[in-house]
Amino acid sequence: MQTGPVDNEIINRVLQGEQALYAQLVKRYTPFVFTIVLRYTANREDAEEIAQDIFVKAYRSLADFRGESKFSTWLYTIVTTTCITFLRKKKVPVHSLDTEQIFDLADNQNSTFKANQVEQKSKVQVLNEALRLLSIDDARILALFYQAEQSLEEIGRILGVEPNTAKVKLHRARQRLKEKMETHFAEVVEELRG
């Protein structure tokens, strides 16, 4: 739920000299950007650095935003190109955590959390780990649809494919995610079903 001025209004006001309003866009889209960046790098410090770089690039390019699509769609393009450039420069190795490490991490959470909050967080962590096991293309389309809440038409525009092709890619990515969850995180899948 978006409160306050809509993105295009904020952008127009920033371009007219009210630069401080850009902070509203940063606040609004930080979770979106950070979630996608974490798909490319599991290192939180790198992710924070990349996210900051993305918002600087977006600010510098704000005059190029034409409003033909959602701001999030335009921003997503900057996110992916920045992440890919970072990975090429750094040549980051991809690692996956095994199930035991994930549950150890969940068990070591601050004890002031309620039990269900820790359980919910561990399920989110497991889902994020399963997403990291997918190809970048599969993780990207799932993030666009579920986390960025982009329509199939917008996803098609971002990926340069027809909406029906985006729908097929999304369906296949869901299937592969389901397979990864059942293969690597069977206990969590059983808990979710039960």
From TrEMBL:
Boundaries of every RNA polymerase sigma factor 70 region 4 type domain copy: 127-177
GO biological process assignments: DNA-templated transcription initiation
Single annotated GO MF: sigma factor activity
Matches recorded under CDD domains: Sigma70_r4 (cd06171)
Record-annotated RNA polymerase sigma-70 region domain positions: 25-91
Coiled-coil stretches noted in the UniProt entry, renumbered to this chain: none
Pfam families in the cross-refs: Sigma70_r2, Sigma70_r4_2
Keywords assigned: Sigma factor, Transcription, Transcription regulation
Top-level taxon in the UniProt lineage: Bacteria
Stated family: Belongs to the sigma-70 factor family. ECF subfamily.
NCBIfam families registered for this protein in UniProt: sigma70-ECF (TIGR02937)
Protein name as catalogued: RNA polymerase, sigma-24 subunit, ECF subfamily
